[in-house]
Amino acid sequence: MIPAMRSLKLEERDRATSIFNDIIMRFEHSQTPEAECGYKPITLIALMEKEVSEKDEFLRLFFSFIGQNPSTEGGEWETDVEHMLSRLASFDSWTTEEIDALRESLAAFAKYLVDNSLLPRRSPELMQDARPLLCSVKAFAAHTPQPTPAPLSPSILSDAAISTPQRVSILRRDCLARDRHRCVITRKFDAEEAGTRWKREKHNMKDDDGQLFSERDTFAFVEVAHIIPHFMPLSNEGGERKLASGHTIASTDAWLTMFQVESKQVAHRILNMFNPTAVNLINGPNIDRPRNALTPTHGLHRQFGEFDIAFEPIGPEPHTYKIDHVDPDDFVSVEKLLITVTLYLTPDRTIDPPSPELLEIHRAIGRILHVSAVGDYIEGFLRDMEEMEGGGVIPNGSSRLDDFVRFRLTVTGWLEGRSPAL
């Protein structure tokens, strides 16, 4: 079981930080080559520690994982931080075998982070195909569904009665109204809404600020994009897991339930390390609320959803951001970036603005995915899983059956009423 998270004592924090930095410095330059494991494991660990706000929790998780007892089945979590730190304080004088074991533990911890916080989770309600799509956090976030904006007030129906497509339809309507039917980055007006107004008003059509459009104005199709996508496992209030086929796995199925619940707990815990209020902001139906969404054009939606674009807060004015590529040397862009924008607010604040906290998590994830090469690794991993899903052999001829089973259990959910083609 995963140990409960508690704040470190001041002396523990200082010592843990020092030992952590020493370990990173010792192993990062000699980490497993990217070509071998697909990403930079030590760089990933270092970036996670740098980007999270709850560093005590991350350090405790790190040292607890490294302190697992490999001789025990499943590994027992070491919970005595002082004992773990005492063991690791002298790692520079360890034998070659002990150093290699520590290096393997670091690689295992990096994979643990990838499996539990960066690989995607899909909501069954968003499955738009009979066969589950295997897509990464990046790819899934780039494709928030775009249903017609809902005409109904969300107060008419309870959250429990609103399916995810209905919530996203309401979300699109509210975000377009809040953002004045404009892309939050380019300020281009939504072409669909412009067409509707043209049919009604012709040359007298105006924007949301009451200004007449001119012949020089250009339009674009504006979409709604989730800041944090639907990549976490969802459970209903009864503690049962609903899968893509509509089947339900009762909580009495102890092995599978424990496997899925623990994965969800770890994902929540790691998300909490970025911001302790984050889970509540996007838990359940909250993920489809305006504070977790904004309105880009189609091309920018894809780049934002792939964590290639980040919003960085600047200056004293609220909701003002510098918008740029996560990789400043990125040559490919659908729009010229490195711009500063102040997001629109509704006059009476009846519709929440995009959450600064969630935008910061999005920025941090983008940096982690890019600098550690985990983003590219996930894309390759999921291409392999898709090959296996279709019954094919992955390009290098190997069989990643263990990865496939774990992925299907924790990500898309198994038991769809048919066996996958293996």
Automatic annotation (TrEMBL):
Top-level taxonomic group: Eukaryota
Lineage: Eukaryota, Fungi, Dikarya, Ascomycota, Pezizomycotina
Pfam families per UniProt: HNH_2
Protein's UniProt name: HNH nuclease domain-containing protein
HNH nuclease domain ranges (all copies): 183-312
